[in-house]
Design brief:
By secondary structure, the chain is α/β, with parallel strands linked by helices. The chain is 39% helix and 21% strand. The mean pLDDT is 92.
């Protein structure tokens, strides 16, 4: 089979700007499979058709399309004329030698002018498959599903639908800066924002030379994995150890973590302005740790003028871990490391910070100098997927 039929769902609910979303999805699909010998991509009613000019690795192709946001599901398909007898013969030919105990025919009649309605197509094709294979029909839990699409110019058939990630195409909802640590939560938060159509710029705060570079190495692996979903990423590595040291020298213990996080937002906001981003994203989950109480989160976010988005705010830890496993970041995040959250952390941090107290402590600091310290010493790294051929 030399084609892939892509189906989308949420995009179809758009009205006046649906074409914009479809064009973004097409562009992202091309980016995902550009090294696999793509021939063309064209729009069909509520679908996209990818055609390839050469043999490709089916497993690689499936894995690539599974990572493209906006795809509801897809099938490897063969194109045939809109003739029920030719369609039947091609399906039987493709199933020759296959072994399965149950099957179903699932027809979508995208062109309502076709003479046969979906139930009749299902009956005719189902009878032919049953006669050839001896398998029984099971409409609810079939071992094999034969998908049939009747469209204005062609018919297509394939076997089983493969689930995509859903959501909206990356780039449809603007650009945001995602604060990413080496932990479990922030990569999941980043993934969920990409699923809502955002393109991410990543910012990681590290404490080298006070701590080793393990967290930076982990974050590079995490960004590499997440770049599979947006194809090109930029990572800013911000040295934060000296900033933490100056905060420790100036303020009392309980509020230090709050001040660290407020400084992170300020520096990340400077990156966001530079990158023309419209919001900041964190992996915070309400009440998960001391700094993520409602009171502390309210005080922390007031350090930034841009909106602070928290896609995990209502999720519990197990939900976050389960999604990290599904998206492939959990194993990387579980590697032991030393990150800036472990440096100069008080034993009993404040859980109900008051803005007035925080601002009084911050008055002892040269905030603008600390922001410059972080931004001027930042380094940038670029990530591309698929990796260019060497």
């Amino acid at each position: 089979m030399d084609s892939v039929l892509i189906r989308y769902h949420e995009i179809a609910l758009k009205k006046g700007n649906r074409r914009y979303f479809i064009e973004l999805l097409k562009r992202n699909l091309i980016s995902a499979v550009k090294d696999l010998g793509i021939k063309e991509i064209r729009s069909l009613p509520a679908r996209l058709l990818l055609t390839f000019k050469a043999d490709y690795d089916t497993e690689v192709l499936i894995e690539r399309i599974r990572s493209v946001f906006g795809v509801a599901n897809f099938s490897m398909v063969e194109r045939t004329p809109r003739d029920i007898e030719i369609l039947r013969d091609r399906i039987l030919e493709s199933l020759d030698g296959s072994r399965f105990s149950s099957f179903r025919i699932d027809t979508q009649r995208g062109d309502k002018t076709f003479a046969l309605k979906s139930p009749e197509i299902n009956r005719q094709l189902g009878a032919a498959v049953k006669n050839q294979t001896g398998a029984r029909v099971n409409l609810t839990n079939a071992e094999l599903t034969v998908t049939v699409e009747i469209l204005p110019r062609d018919a297509f058939f394939g076997f089983n639908k493969i689930a995509g990630p859903g959501g909206l195409p990356v780039g449809a909802s603007g650009r945001v800066v995602a604060l990413i640590s080496g932990g479990i939560d922030s990569p999941v938060g980043a993934y969920r924002m990409m699923q809502r159509g955002c393109r991410l710029i990543f910012v990681h705060f590290h404490s080298a030379p006070y701590l080793d570079q393990t967290s930076q190495q982990k974050v590079r692996q995490l960004v590499t994995e997440l770049t599979r979903c947006q194809f090109q990423s930029r990572l800013y590595l911000i040295p934060f150890g000296e900033i933490q040291r100056q905060i420790v020298a100036a303020v009392a213990r309980p509020l230090r973590v709050i001040l660290y996080r407020r400084m992170m937002l300020r520096i990340a906001e400077q990156v966001a302005r530079r990158e023309k981003c419209q919001a900041l994203v964190t992996g915070e989950s309400l009440a998960q740790v001391a700094s993520q109480t409602l009171e502390n989160m309210a005080v922390i976010q007031q350090a930034a003028q841009l909106p602070v988005l928290r896609p995990l705010v209502g999720m519990d830890k197990q939900e976050i871990i389960d999604q990290a496993r599904r998206i492939g970041t959990y194993e990387i995040s579980s590697i032991p490391d030393q990150d800036c959250c472990q440096l100069f952390v008080p034993k009993h941090p404040a859980t109900r910070a008051r803005l007035a107290d925080v601002e009084q402590d911050e008055s002892r600091l040269d905030i603008e100098a600390l922001i410059r310290l972080g931004t001027t010493n930042a380094t940038e790294e670029e990530f591309i997927f698929p990796a260019p051929a060497r």
